[in-house]
User: Fold glycine--tRNA ligase from Cylindrobasidium torrendii FP15055 ss-10.
Amino acid sequence: MAAVNKTAHSFDKARLEALLSRRFFYAPAFEIYGGVAGLYDYGPSGSSLQANIINEWRKHFIIEEAMLELDTTIMTPAPVFETSGHVARFADWMVKDTKTGDMLRADHLVKTVLGQRLADDEELRSGTAQPVDAKKKKKDKTPPKVKLEAAVAKEYETILAQLDNYDGPQLGELCRTHKIHNPDTDNEVGEPSQFNLMFTSSIGPTGRFPGYLRPETAQGHFLNFSRLLDFNNGKVPFASAQIGRSFRNEISPRAGLLRVREFTMAEIEHFVDPDDKKHPKFASVADVELTLLDRHVQEAGSTEVKRLRVGDAVANGVIANETLAYFMVRISQFLLKIGIDPKRMRFRQHMGNEMAHYATDCWDAELQNSYGWTECVGCADRAAYDLTVHSKKTGQQLVVRESLREPIVREAEVAELNKKIVGKSFKGDAAIFTKHIEGLDEAALVELKSALLNGKTTVTTAEGKSFEITPEFLTIERKTLKQSIREYTPNVIEPSFGLGRILYVLLEHNYWSREQDVDRGVLSLPPLVAPTKVLICPLSSNKEFEPIVADISAKLRRSGIFSKVDDSSQTIGKRYSRNDELGTPYGLTVDFASVQKGTLTLRERDTMDQRIGSIDEVVSIVADLCEGKIDWPQACERLPAYDGKQAVD
Amino acid sequence: MAAVNKTAHSFDKARLEALLSRRFFYAPAFEIYGGVAGLYDYGPSGSSLQANIINEWRKHFIIEEAMLELDTTIMTPAPVFETSGHVARFADWMVKDTKTGDMLRADHLVKTVLGQRLADDEELRSGTAQPVDAKKKKKDKTPPKVKLEAAVAKEYETILAQLDNYDGPQLGELCRTHKIHNPDTDNEVGEPSQFNLMFTSSIGPTGRFPGYLRPETAQGHFLNFSRLLDFNNGKVPFASAQIGRSFRNEISPRAGLLRVREFTMAEIEHFVDPDDKKHPKFASVADVELTLLDRHVQEAGSTEVKRLRVGDAVANGVIANETLAYFMVRISQFLLKIGIDPKRMRFRQHMGNEMAHYATDCWDAELQNSYGWTECVGCADRAAYDLTVHSKKTGQQLVVRESLREPIVREAEVAELNKKIVGKSFKGDAAIFTKHIEGLDEAALVELKSALLNGKTTVTTAEGKSFEITPEFLTIERKTLKQSIREYTPNVIEPSFGLGRILYVLLEHNYWSREQDVDRGVLSLPPLVAPTKVLICPLSSNKEFEPIVADISAKLRRSGIFSKVDDSSQTIGKRYSRNDELGTPYGLTVDFASVQKGTLTLRERDTMDQRIGSIDEVVSIVADLCEGKIDWPQACERLPAYDGKQAVD
Assistant:
């Protein structure tokens, strides 16, 4: 078995991007119309990769955890997002270039400019750059590189560590204090203003019903809560799950698939008893270690991570509850399974000001890539926020009603009205009086009871209406009450996946170049998600190969493995190179020995090792490899190496 | 094996709708906010059914035919739909209620009102209704039922057969002539006006970039044509395929899932040589018979269908070409496979005025249901329309360049200019003169050649500019030209599936009630698409059943079959009834005999037959049933009937 050196060449983003474009993983949408920032189309390779990721997600979460799948509407009437708080608060701060009028996202501007200054400083100190560029072009608006005072550099680092914690006025203050200009023009920027990120539209022909494109799928789960609960026979906890498109009208998206205006999400809303956030399967994950960056570390201006056993993290209160921790582990397991590099994954806790308006705690699974650390999965505790606001707005009860095993028995003061006397005495005001009495709490009832002992008293409502009453009007007695139903609004733990971000980082984590030739890129995608698992290459267009190719295809398909045939006229070598770029893990070559001796050669993508065996044997080994039943070294034990020569007539 | 009578009770839409709501197949979106017409959410049953239909679609089309999958953007900048013709022409005619201002779709109004009059007439003639309802309520705006003259009834029928062929002014004329009012208010309606069905929005924070939500996925395929062609190694024919959400801002949607504002489509764009629309696999489908309703029959005011062998339909010119016919067969096979009733499927050809602006021929797969015959799949020949308009607008070549096996050799007149003399003589006008000469066709060159034989002549451009020339300025000679590349814009055959419509009709076609109890509804969905294939029911919550249930689950999963466990406290009978409504084909009951003797009972949904065998035997038979390897009678041969009694300790 050949040894493989995947790190011979350092990561080169431009090469990867060229590969992704050439092999049509994705491309700017509306490219022939000049494109639109933040909108991308997935080609055959990207679509297939995405479909495989979604398929695994569905198995790992929906099927494994028996979640209830949903497919809800994107176009949403305005009142829903008014209630959810998105109309008022789902916004980013933007600043205007004072001369060109271009809009920039304020926090990204600060990050870019201060980050650049720190990088320049680093370069100058290490001697890899010149302090003043004498030949600087007039048109180049890039400010000259300068060395920073130690204190200034330290201040910048602290700002960047806390960046997500600043509000608009604070970002404006930072721009002024640190003379942060638009880097494209070197113009000053104005005061930050808020821009709502939801796309707006109008439903129906009248223009009277404004709508928004959903920025998350979550509201679709909450609005259907009662139906879901009923489907689950009234029992909690349960989770709903949805995979679908969402939209955010980003201010000036510039980071490829990492910041887009339209994207596919996979969201889980796990509804749980607020008094019991334990998870029945927690014991099975308690020993897993995660890399954590908690809020206290960040608020102290640091980004140093800790490796913690999840069981300890919950016990120490670093992670708030078992359910949140259980999902963090499951998220981590999913990401590793599809091929994310474990060394470039961490969970970062949100800081106070950074949290979305609906969340009480949130941990992001962040993946490191050439743009930095990027949030790819959020895992938030939304508490009872959403169900509460929708229930209040619509008057619909969004609650769980649970029969108590043992009824709660308690004593309390209970008022009983004599309706006849009340009606006769207060006539039209009887209802006001009745409502007032029914609204009295324990303490008020005790007080009224003692006042009535005097034979007569006056009751005054909040609106200032007075009623004179005697003990004839009502009796107040201490009674034993039995409560057999508990009613509560469940809390929600929400793991929310940005599939496009995960897909992009996955490509970065699996891209490398052959040691002997930097131009020969390889995507080492695991068979589980690779767009094509097996490539079948007939040596030439000779008709004799056709039935063998068809037979291999059919056999693989019966094992549930979908292969592709490449019968193009290119050399086998070129076809293999193309498939290394497409991430195809295995290649089968049909040649004259296949016709005469029934043999087949098998090529492994990463090692470029070739093995030989009978057609049936090789097909069965490929099936085992694709299903993860064996790995390549095990396959090599079963198949002899192919030396590239075979005696054929 | 029990006999099943599925037609004991006539179809009852209200019962079906109650079932679909109760079992959360789908529900009005934003229901707790009062709902929005034409927007629906799919619950767990509907999502799973939809996912299974999509899965089968992907296998049947994308994998089986090696199509290139795409996933493109919904939010589309305005220029794309300006070019494609949708901004100008993707509209419906609507009329306004003259008093309430409500908007109604004009063709639907005509259909509803004339259809009702015909139905009333029918009722009166058959004696099932009274001509004048003496107790008619004042508020009821329904016009009284009247008998129609035979000629009037005939006229209505003719109008309805041609309804899709009328334009706006004609629909307005129909409303006036036949006194067609808004049936909800009995108010007159105004003149029809056009309403564009695309939802509008705005991209980015400036408000300067209008966008539309795509009303079809097709443009995403066309805009990526060059990349797709390149991915396919420059070869045609090939097909791209996409499953995704589209949006149409319907005027007043009222037909449940059949007319919605947001829907999931599955679209194929098959790119083909315009001079060769043969299909390589046509022979394999030529003997299939389809039910056809061609345009000539409809234009003669009839809706009588013909059963035709596809081979004959192409030979006789009823279906325009092999590729169109091939896809019609594949569409039909797909619909039958997922459970559509073959007797309620037909292909209807579009009439001239009815065709979308981009189509040259179109056949709809229509499925009959309680709303009538509904288009569920369109199969259109879009010719070169889209690629041509986008290419013209953007200046990007969207063509196939094909090396000719044998170069085309032909003789032609060729003009060769003496650039020096032309430049010197005509100076600034030289370019105009050159362009004019280069644009001359064969005949004009022959004429000019003979004129030059006189030594001098005058050339006049289309703009009226004259040039006096002599043979020194140019020579015109007959030359042999060799063309080795053929360049052409491919044509497109487009099968386009409305998945929500198919899903709804599938539910109607598979719904029935038990003969002995009309309230016991059953959905006889084929295992291929049923939301859950196998239900595992432990008799009670006894702990002894748990390992057996887990074992059966795991065994089924290894066969790729996902089961559900129903361990709720309801009786087995109630759990079975619930699963009949959910369309679950098989039930496995774990009882004390399972614990003591290792047996398992298997229940079939439609017959309610119960069979018994060892756990392994039953699990293996269920797997075969779900994969369609055996049918129920075959399973019955392998398993004895269960009489409901077993000796256990």
